[in-house]
Amino acid sequence: MSLENLFCKNTGKTLTALCVMAVTLFTGCGYNENTQAKTNSNTATEDHLKDEEDVITNDERSTESMLKLFINDKEIQVIWEENESVEALKNLAEDKPIIIDMSMYGDFEQVGSIGQSIPRNDKQMTTSAGDIVLYSGNQLVVFYGSNSWAYTKLGHIENTSAEEMKKRLGSGDVNVTISITE
Questions:
Q1: Following DSSP, what letter does each residue of 126-164 receive, concatenated?
Q2: Which residues pair with 178 in a beta bridge?
Q3: Which one of 15, 92, 111, 171 is separated from 86 by 20 to 30 angstroms, measured CA to CA?
């Protein structure tokens, strides 16, 4: 058999084998345009549902009750944390406002008893003026200075300088009220 006959004879077998492998490769992997289109469609639908859930959650937040803080009957703007301790404060304030007699301590904070223990998740931190924390699970602390200790952060008084915080809290004992707005 000549080299030319051998090449021609094997070329046919080789081409057939290549065609079979190509068909197997493209169909055996399970890829087709319909499968890819369905996957893209499902992903888009899931993303749309996630967006709708976020909108619902944000709408619900705007209508759900919010905590308000008053120091000596003056309302103070607070950015509250989203944690179990803040939720417990909300639950306590649902029936009636929480009134806390605060006392100066260490020339950097006001401290007062909530009247009962609530859940806590203490973490070592350094506080700054305006921070509101939970100490020992039953003490509310509002800082007009700084301290390092293990606390559960509840919130931060916004738009108030350290100097204003010192004026408001550093001149004697204060009364703090936590209530719910509907």
A1: E--TTEEEEETTTEEEEESS--EEEEEEEEEE-S--HHH
A2: 69, 98
A3: 171
